[in-house]
Design goal:
This protein is of the alpha+beta class and 226 residues long. It contains five helices and eight strands; from the N terminus they run βββββαααββαβα. The chain has helices spanning 63-74, 84-102, 114-129, 156-175, 195-211; strands at residues 4-8, 11-15, 33-38, 42-46, 50-56, 133-140, 144-151, 188-191. The strands form three sheets. The chain has a four-stranded antiparallel beta sheet with strand order 6-7-5-8, with helices on both faces. The chain has a two-stranded antiparallel ribbon with strand order 1-2. Strand 6 and strand 7 (144-151) form a beta hairpin. Helix 1 packs antiparallel against helix 2 (84-102) and helix 3 (114-129) packs antiparallel against helix 4 (156-175). The termini are close together.
Length: 226
């Protein structure tokens, strides 16, 4: 795959796919909400949303960690949908708790299997070619995956469920799960509010292998979109 440049807020990033986000004046996005729904985690879909999504393997976070995340998520019921600042604070707490468990890479590191990692890369790129999403950046970690993309067509929920179903079936057959779930039932999603936040998300994705102490430089990590 030929590496190409992606420009976001005047900065250059390297991506596998030919993607471009035009440089814009800095402004806060305020898109129309399509749907807000609550499972064990909150999910918020908006028009023309750019989404930071984290999907992790079933069992990658032990029960005590999942219980803590669900307790934090339950705090959302205290706030009305209009109280966006408070809801964002809770989303950040959910993500921080989730990442603290995942970055230890202690539980279910099945994505270290190169055949499985390649299945995920192929699935991401196939959906890019089909114009389901425009992928700006992604990284495949040992037990989870981060993606940052703009949905081109369809609904976020259906796109991610399709991605999980296909990759879970293909990957599960390699590790003989015997019908057990490959991915955790839900995922974490967050839509980016500004160009500055786009840049922060991309930098976070790039630095995740470094933060998890897997490599010294993100460029040394094979399974990313750089």
């Amino acid at each position: 795959m030929i590496s190409t440049a992606t420009t976001i807020s005047g900065k250059t990033h390297r991506c596998r796919e030919t993607t471009h986000i035009s440089s814009k004046t800095q402004m806060i996005r305020n898109p129309k909400t399509i749907e807000f729904w609550m499972g064990r985690l909150p999910h918020w879909e908006v028009e023309d949303g750019r989404y930071f999504v984290t999907i992790h393997l079933s069992g990658a976070i032990p029960k005590r960690g999942r219980d803590q995340i669900h307790n934090i998520a339950a705090e959302l019921s205290k706030f009305a949908k209009q109280q966006l600042d408070e809801r964002l604070k809770i989303q950040r707490k959910i993500f921080a708790e989730m990442e603290s468990w995942l970055d230890s890479c202690e539980y279910k590191p099945l994505l270290r299997n190169e055949k499985i990692a390649q299945i995920l890369v192929d699935a991401i790129e196939t959906r890019t070619h089909k114009e389901i999403w425009q992928m700006f950046q992604y990284v495949i970690m040992p037990n989870h995956i981060h993606m940052f993309f703009e949905l081109i067509r369809g609904r976020l929920k259906f796109a991610l469920e399709d991605f999980k179903t296909w990759t879970g079936r293909q990957s599960g057959s390699l590790v003989h799960l015997d019908g057990k779930r490959f991915w955790q039932r839900e995922w974490f999603d967050h839509w980016s509010r500004s160009d500055d936040e786009d840049d922060r998300i991309i930098e976070y994705i790039r630095q995740n292998p470094v933060k998890a102490k897997l490599v010294r430089s993100y460029l040394e990590w094979q399974w990313g979109s750089w």
